[in-house]
Amino acid sequence: KHVCVACPMRSSCLGKSAQEKKFSVTYYREEYERNNARVHSPQGRYMKGKRQSTVEPVFGTLTQFMGLRKINTLGLKQANKVMHLSAIAYNLKTCLPAGRST
Question: What is the 3-state secondary structure (H, E, C) of 13-59?
Fold first, then answer.
């Protein structure tokens, strides 16, 4: 509270009625910082680009267009079956021609 009184950024940091600003630090702060450093490293940026071009479009298609927003099964074994069937459906959709006129 005493620090905020003399701070030149007080008006932009605090609202009109606030007298002080409280900060909390999570127990996992070191892990967050280590992960941020890893993600923003050259290798992390490379891996993000690779993931965006290979895996993310598949999950986007499954969730947005093929109804896989939530897996309503009990157990990991059943959830794996749902994911495998979804992957098969996605692969068939991409391999087969879209508009066959016979």
Answer: HCCCCCCCCCCCCCCCHHHHHHHHHHHCCHHHHHHHHHHHHHCHHHH
